[in-house]
Amino acid sequence: MPHTNTSAGTTLRLLWAGLRALLVLSIVTGVIYPLVVTGVAQAAFPGKANGSEIKDHGKVVGSTSIGQSYNLPLKKGQETPDPDLHFFQPRPSAGLGSNRANGFNPQYNLLVSGASNLAGNNKDLISAVKDRKAAVVKDNTVPGYTVRPSQVPADAVTSSGSGLDPDISPAYANLQVHRVAKINNLTVAQVQKIVDDHSKGRILGFVGDPRVNVLQLNIAVKDLVATHKG
């Protein structure tokens, strides 16, 4: 009988010790550690910690880390919207979803982030790239400025690995300057200055590629158009 009482007491002590360990670890890893990490992130990298927000006149309109589309409303019977050519267009977004246009989902959709995973010799991919190149040439050829197929950069016709790339190459941005200027009744010099002002080089001089954030470009275009109308 005494042996039984001793065993029960030992079990209770072990359970209480385990409960205390659980409570302490829960507080340390579930409360203290997240607060410390959050505090350090807010102090050292406030912009990144808050989602790398892009604001337009004080209103959050996107993130420097996630791309978005600039399309016209869907017309009756359309499955894929037409691009709004008043704005700079991003690179294609393949995604993991699909539609009937060559099996691609061209929409920037956070729920279907990913690459198409098609090989370079895939017929659907080759067909999509040809169609995209033809569209880029057609959309960006305006009176006095003709785009040749050889001028179309790779990022204008291929998606990124995530399908959510927020940036385009300066070459693709420059290709769109005349069209954006023409449609918005701006001068080429005005729009080119926007591209030049927002272009960034390689990180640390050697990491990645030169880039331009599309949303920041389009905010600048919108503001310039509003200034001219005002």
Computed Rg: 26 Å
Number of helical elements: 6
General shape: elongated
Count of DSSP strands: 5
Distance between the termini: 94 Å
Strand content: 5-15%
Total number of distinct structural domains: 2
Which structural class fits the helix and strand makeup?
mainly alpha
Descriptive account of the structure:
A hairpin with a 2-residue loop joins strand 1 (53-56) and strand 2 (59-63). The protein has a three-stranded antiparallel sheet with strand order 3-5-4. The chain has a two-stranded antiparallel ribbon with strand order 1-2. It is mainly α and 230 residues long. It contains six helices and five strands. Helix 4 (170-183) packs antiparallel against helix 5 (188-198) and helix 5 packs antiparallel against helix 6 (214-229). The chain has helices at 2-44, 46-49, 123-140, 170-183, 188-198, 214-229, and strands at 53-56, 59-63, 167-168, 199-200, 211-213. 46% of the residues lie in helices and 7% in strands. The chain folds into two domains: 2-48; 51-229, no CATH class.
Looking at this protein, list some descriptive labels.
230 residues, mainly alpha, 2 domains, three-stranded antiparallel beta sheet, two-stranded antiparallel sheet, 5 strands, 46% helix
